[in-house]
Amino acid sequence: MPPVEPPAPAVPRERPSGGDPTTPVTAEGPAAAEGPPVAPVGGPAGPVYPATWYDGPPPVAEVSPRPRIARVVAAALGLVVLGAPLGLLWAAVAPDTPVVRTAEGAIYGEPQPEQPIAADGWFSLLGLGFGVLAAVALWFVLRRGRGPVGLLAAVLGSLGAALVAWQVGRRVGLATFERLLTTAPEGEAFGKPADLRAGGIEWVLGVLPVPYGNVLLPAFGAAVAYTLLAGWSRWPSLHPGPVPGVSWGSAAMPGPPAAPAPPAPGAAEPPRG
Question: 82: buried, middle or exposed (CB in 10 Å: 19+, 13-18, 0-12)?
C-alpha cells in the first residue's frame, strides 16, 4: 500500500476587517456563529489547532458613584435628625439642678450639687451608645457603601447628632427657668434644666467652631464600632458579592485545547524522522 500523505495543517489567517474580534479564524475563513467546534488537524509536528482571536476580557461598564454617595449623605443626615429625639431623652433622664432665687439672681440650693455631673454622665452614656448603634445600622443598611465613605458618614452623622441633642436637650424647660429668674419672689426654689459642663463648642479666632469634650463621644463610639465591624468582616470587599467595576479574579483566558482525536483504523502512521 502506498504511503498516505498527511493532511496539511490549518494555517491561521488574518482577521477580516470589520468582523467580530471574537470570531475564530481558520484557513477556510471565519467560523460559523453556531455549530460544532473545529477538530484539530494532525501533522508531523503534532496537532495544530485553529487560530482564535483574544482581545482580553469583555469591557466592564462603568458605574457612576453618585447614587452611592447620595445614599451615604442621606444616611448621615438621617443620623443628624435623630439627634433631636436623643436630646429629648437626655432631658428626660438628666435631673434638674435645684436653685434658689435671690436678689442677685439664682444660686445653687445645695453647697455641692451633683446634678450637673449627672447630666454630663447621662449625655456621655447616651451619646456613646448612640454612636455604636449608628455604626451598626449604617454597616447593615449601606452594604454597598462600606469602607472609608461609610466610616466618614457614621462619624460625621454621629457628631452632628450629638450637637443637635445638646442644643435640643438644654432648651427643654429653659424658657420657664428664665421666666422664673425674673418673676419668682426671693427665696423661691425651682429647677435649672440640664446642660453640659464637660463639653460643647469652642470658637477659635471667633469664626471657627471646634467641638470638644463629651460631644465627641458619639463620633468616637461610631468610629470604633465601624472599624471593628470592618476588621471582623469575612469579605475582602467588606460586603458579599462582586463590586461593580472591580474583578477579584484573573481575566478569562481561553481554556486548554482538547486532546487530539485518535487516528482512524487502517490509517498509515506519519513518517518518523
Answer: buried
CA distance 151 to 263: 66
**The dihedral sign for the CA sequence 148, 150, 151, 156:** positive
Question: Of 180, 167, 169, which is closest to residue 92 (Cα–Cα)?
Answer: 169
In the chain, domain spans: 66-231
Q: What pTM was computed for the model?
A: 0.63
**Whole-angstrom distance, CA of residue 22 vs CA of residue 31:** 10
DSSP per position, 45-64: TS-B--------SPPPPP--
Q: 58: left (phi > 0), else alpha (psi -120 to 50), else beta? A: beta
65-98 confidence digits (pLDDT tens): 677 778 888 989 999 999 999 999 999 999 999 8
Amino acid at 256: P
